Amino acid sequence: MSNFEDVVLTVDNLVKQYGNFSAVKDISMHLRKGKSLAIIGPNGAGKSTTLKMIYATTVITAGHVEINGIDVETDPREAKRHIGVVMQDDLLDTSLNVVENMVAHAILFDIPWKLAKKKAEGLLKFVGLSNYKNKEIHELSGGMRRRLVLARALVNNPELIILDEPTTGLDIQSRHVFWNKLEQLKKNGVALLITSHYGEEIERLADDVMIINHGKMIVSGQTRLLPAQQGYKSIEEMYLGLTGYTKEREEIEQTFS
C-alpha cells in the first residue's frame, strides 16, 4: 500500500507471461493527482499490455497494481470506477447517436438515466461537441470521434485517465484541441497515463517519461531533464538512441545498398 495520499496509481514489479514469452518484465511506477506519465517504446515493447493489466482487462502474472489504494486484482470493478480509458480503437456504438453513446456508457457505472444525460451534456460542452449531440457517429470527423471518446471516459469522474496513442491519425489542429482538453483535466487534478509515438505530444503533456523495450524499462525520469541526463538533445533523439534505432537503420541500409 502507498503512504502518499495523493498517489492515484501504484504499480509494483508488474509481469506478464505468455507461456515462455515475457511480454512485460518487472515494470514499476507511481502517478500522483494532476501529474502525467508517458510510456514510450517500439511496437511490441509491452506498452499496451502494461496498460491492459493496469485497467484490469488482462490478467497479471506477477506484481501488484493499485488505483486509489484499490487492488486491481482483488476488486477490479471498484478499481475501474476510478479510471477513464481512451484506447486507439474508439469502440463507439454506431447504432446510437452522440449523446446516447455517452448515456449508455454512464449507465455502466450505475449512474441514473437523468443524471447520466445531464453529465453527458456537460461533458459534450467541455469537449466542444454540444452542437453535435444528436448527430450519428458516422457524421463525425476523426477529431470529433476522439473528443467524444475522451468525454465518454470522463462520465464516472475518474481520478486517472489512461490514453493509448490518443491522437494517432488526427490532423494538427485536432491534435492541439485534444491536448488543450487534457491540460485542463490535469489542472483539475486528473492524472494522465499516456502512450504515444509523438515527441511533441510527450514533451507537452508528460511530466515524466518511461522508455520500455522488449517488456523491460530502460530508463525513466522527468521529461524536461531526462534527455540531457542521458546525453541526448530531445525525447525523440533519446528514444531512437536507446531503442536500437541506429543499429536497425544500419542493417536496413546494408540490405538495400
Automatic annotation (TrEMBL):
Keyword tags: ATP-binding, Nucleotide-binding, Transport
PANTHER family to which the protein is assigned, alphabetical: ABC TRANSPORTER ATP-BINDING PROTEIN, ABC TRANSPORTER ATP-BINDING PROTEIN NATA
The keyword Transport is annotated on this UniProt entry: yes
Protein name, as recorded: ABC transporter ATP-binding protein
Stated family: Belongs to the ABC transporter superfamily.
Top-level taxonomic group: Bacteria
GO molecular function term, any single one: ATP binding
Organism: Liquorilactobacillus hordei
Residues annotated as domain ABC transporter: 9-239
Keyword ATP-binding annotated: yes
PROSITE patterns named in the record: ABC_TRANSPORTER_1, ABC_TRANSPORTER_2
SUPFAM superfamilies named in the record: P-loop containing nucleoside triphosphate hydrolases (SSF52540)
SMART domains documented for this protein: AAA
Family matches, as Pfam families: ABC_tran (PF00005)
InterPro entries attached to this UniProt entry: AAA+_ATPase, ABC_transporter-like_ATP-bd, ABC_transporter-like_CS, ABC_transporter_ATP-binding, P-loop_NTPase
